[in-house]
Amino acid sequence: MKISNLPYLEPYTTRDSRHRCPRCNHARTFTFYIDPETGKPIHRTVGRCDREIKCGYHYTPREYYRDNLPLCGDLFDGNQSKGNGEQISGNGKQISRNGKFSDKTVVTGDLFGVNSNQSGMNNNQSETIDYIKILDEKIDCISHRYVICSKSSDSNFVSFLYDHFPGERIEEAIDRYALGATRNRRVIFWQIDNDDNVRTGKIMQYNPLTGKRVRNERGGINWVHNILKKRSYVFQNYNLCQCYFGEHLLKLYPNKPVAIVEAEKTAVIGSIHTPDFIWLAAGNLNGLNVPKSRVLRDRNVMLFPDAGCYEKWAEKIKRISREVNCTMEVSDVVEKHATEEQLINGYDLPIML
Questions:
Q1: Is the four-CA dihedral 26, 31, 34, 39 of positive or negative sign?
Q2: N or C of the chain: less Cβ packing under 10 Å?
C-alpha cells in the first residue's frame, strides 16, 4: 500500500524486512527506501544501515536519482532542455586513479560503488564513503559520469590550441584538466576539488582562430549545475561551493609550486607552456579568496592577475596569507609589459608567453 507520494523507508514488520548492509555486510541491519509508485525498493543500495555509529551508511533517493540521471546527449539535448542548447559530445573514456583518462574501461553505473549488475557492493568503497561525507557537509556535487562522458577534444578552444602547441602537450592538458565539450563545440571546464569531487562545470565558447571568448548578451557562460536544475527536481536546491579550476592536481604534485590566474583558458595554456607549475584558475577577479585558498596550505603560490588587476590581488593576498599558512606572491609581469590598450581591456598572461 502506498504510504506517501515521496520515497519512504520500508516499515518494520519482521526480521526479514531488514536486509544485508551493502557497506558493512551485516545481515538484517539495512532498511530499503521504497518507491511509492511501485511499492518496491528503489535499488538494493538505496537505504540506511541501523548501525549508525559503527557503519553510518545512508544513501538517499535524492542522491541515487542524482547519480543516475541520463548521461550525455539525454542530459544536454537542446530539444529537451529549452534555453541552454547544450549537448555533451564525448568518447566515453574512464578516469583512472591517477587523474588520467583511460580507454580500457567503459562507463557503467558502478561509480561510488553502485552496480545493479552485481549481487554485492564493489569491494572498493572509498568513493562511496567520500561522497556521502561531502553530502553530509552540505556541499552538493555532480556525478563523475558527466565528466567521463564529456571528455573530448572537439571544442573550438582545443582547436585553437592545436594551431599553437604540439598535439602531445595538448592531449596531456585535456587529460590533466578533464576538458569536455558540448555538441556545439563549447568547452567544459570542470571544477574538481582536492578530494576529486565535481563541484560544477563552466561551459564557454571560443573563437577557434583567435582563441578569444565568444560573448553574447548574457556573457556567453553557462554552468552544468544550472542545466541539471532545469532537467531534474533533485537539483533544484543545489548548494554550489566553487573551488579553483585545476584544484584536483594539488595532491598529484605535492612538491610543485602553484600558479594562479583568473581564466581557465589561461591556466590550461600556462600548463602547456610552463609545466613546472600547477596552474589553477580563480574563474574571475573575485574568485581569489580565503575559503578556496585553504587547500593551498604550506604551498608556494605565485599569482598572475590580468592587466590592470595587480593592486586588487596584491590587496587580497594580505588576508589570505594571514589566514592560510602559505607563501603567496603577486607577479607584475603582465602589468609591466602590457600596453595601455591591454591594461584597459584586462589582457592576461598568454600575451606574455
A1: positive
A2: N
C-alpha cell at 85: 542548447
Cite the beta strand spans of 41-138 per DSSP E. 47-49, 58-59, 94-95, 101-102
> H helices within 14-78, ranges in order?
61-67
Q: How many CA atoms lie within 13 A of 236 on its CB side?
A: 4
Positive or negative, the Cα torsion across 93, 95, 100, 103? Answer: negative
Name, in order, each residue with C-beta under 8 angstroms of 292's C-beta and a sequence gap of 6 or more.
242, 243, 244, 282
Q: Which helix (H) or strand (E) holds 156?
A: helix 156-162
- Contacts of 69-78 with C-beta under 8 Å, sequence gap 24+, read 69/143, 69/228, 69/231, 69/232, 71/107, 71/145, 71/146, 71/149, 72/149, 72/150, 73/183, 75/146, 75/227, 75/228, 75/231, 76/182, 76/183, 76/227, 78/183
Per-residue pLDDT of the chain in tens (353 residues, 90 and over written 9): 444 568 889 999 988 899 999 989 999 999 999 988 888 999 899 999 998 888 888 988 877 877 766 554 444 544 333 444 565 555 444 333 334 433 332 333 322 222 333 333 333 333 444 444 544 456 888 988 889 889 999 999 999 999 999 999 999 999 999 999 998 999 999 999 999 999 999 999 999 999 998 987 556 789 999 988 888 777 878 889 999 999 999 999 999 999 999 999 999 999 999 999 999 999 998 999 999 999 999 999 999 988 778 889 999 999 998 899 999 999 877 666 545 554 444 455 554 44
User: In whole angstroms, what is the distance from residue 232 CA to residue 338 CA?
Assistant: 46
Output the pTM of the full model.
0.67
